[in-house]
Amino acid sequence: MNTSDILTSAIRTINTERNGLAALEKSLRGPMSKPFQDTINIFANITGRLIVTGMGKSGHIGSKIAATFASTGTPAFFVHPAEANHGDLGMIARDDAVLAMSWSGEATELKGILAYSRRFKIPLVALTSKPESTLAREADICLILPREEEACPHGLAPTTSTVMQLVIGDALAIALLEARGFSPGDFKTFHPGGQLGANLTQIADLMHKGNELPLVPTGTSMNAAVETISKSGFGCVGITDDSGTLCGVITDGDLRRNIDKNMQSLCVEDIMSRNPKVVAPTALASTAIAMLNDLKLTTLFVTENNKPVGLIHMHDLLRAGVV
């Protein structure tokens, strides 16, 4: 194949799969609307776990879907249907629910899980393209996927079909996340490591506090303020009024802009920047780094009820892995 043919093939694949997603959206706005909502209601009310199962390519997609549910607050795991027939059915409890995936709805390996779920009245949701299939007939709820053209030119390799399975799985997970009010803090609980965990860390966990804070009261001489800036190493000093409220900030930049003035005759009120930009201790680290970038600053004071409780530096965020 020449370069033109290769790109034509790739674009055709993308367009074919895009058509499948358009058909899926249309179905979700139409016949799939009620069963989708019923599925969310079932999954939201189980006291056990969500069991995802499927064979072949459906199984590979199912494993990813289970991982997405688990990371967004719904206890879930994938059970291989063939292994289930050889003892793993014991992993499924009566307070669980099952999401069974099969494009044809006739995967013989699923029969053990189907029979088990019917015997113990475990809620069963089918994700298939054939409403007349064995899986669809046995299920409590059927999510019927539109039968769109596969991107494979021979119509054999699951391509468009698996993309639709993946997307409807994501749609279920996100709808359930929102229905449960799953917060960024909850997300951090399930993602403590890596960049995502760093971005979801709260400022309170990274900020400097206590005696580390470079603070001086109003009326302080500029000589004393400069000494505080030098000792702190943060390149700034916060100014507090009689009530302890942060009323201003002086940075290295403010000193440079006022270098032609007689500092010995000035006090902090003469050059401080009033109404300084601050961040709350409950804010996410990703919020702080965005503020620092937008404001072209390297530090932010952290306040509660307008009183300084901490200070966060760009380097603190970078060391924590926030980007």
Structure summary:
This protein has 323 residues and is an alpha/beta fold. It is built from 13 helices and 12 strands.
Describe the 3D structure.
Helices cover 43% and strands 16% of the residues. The chain is of the alpha/beta class. The strands form three sheets. Strands 2-1-3-4-5 form a five-stranded parallel sheet, with helices on both faces. A four-stranded mixed sheet has the order 6-7-8-9. The two termini are 41 Å apart. The mean pLDDT is 90.
Q: DSSP helix count?
A: 13
Q: How much strand?
A: 15-25%
In angstroms, what separates the terminal alpha carbons? 41 Å
Structural class: alpha/beta
Order of strands in the sheet with most strands: 2-1-3-4-5
Order of helices and strands: HHEHEHEHEHEHHHEHEEHEEHEEH
Q: Specify Rg, calculated over alpha carbons.
A: 29 Å
Shape: elongated
Question: Could you give the count of β-strands?
Answer: 12
Characterize the biggest β-sheet.
5 strands, parallel
Low-confidence stretches: none
Helix content: 40-55%
Chain-averaged pLDDT: 90
Descriptors:
elongated; about 325 residues; five-stranded parallel sheet; alpha/beta; four-stranded mixed sheet; 12 strands
Topology:
Layout: H1 3-29, H2 33-45, E1 50-54, H3 57-71, E2 76-78, H4 81-84, E3 97-101, H5 111-119, E4 124-128, H6 134-138, E5 141-144, H7 160-179, H8 184-190, H9 194-199, E6 215-217, H10 222-232, E7 236-240, E8 246-251, H11 252-257, E9 273-274, E10 278-279, H12 285-295, E11 299-304, E12 307-313, H13 314-319
Parallel strand pairs: 1-2, 1-3, 3-4, 4-5, 6-7, 10-11
Antiparallel strand pairs: 7-8, 8-9, 11-12
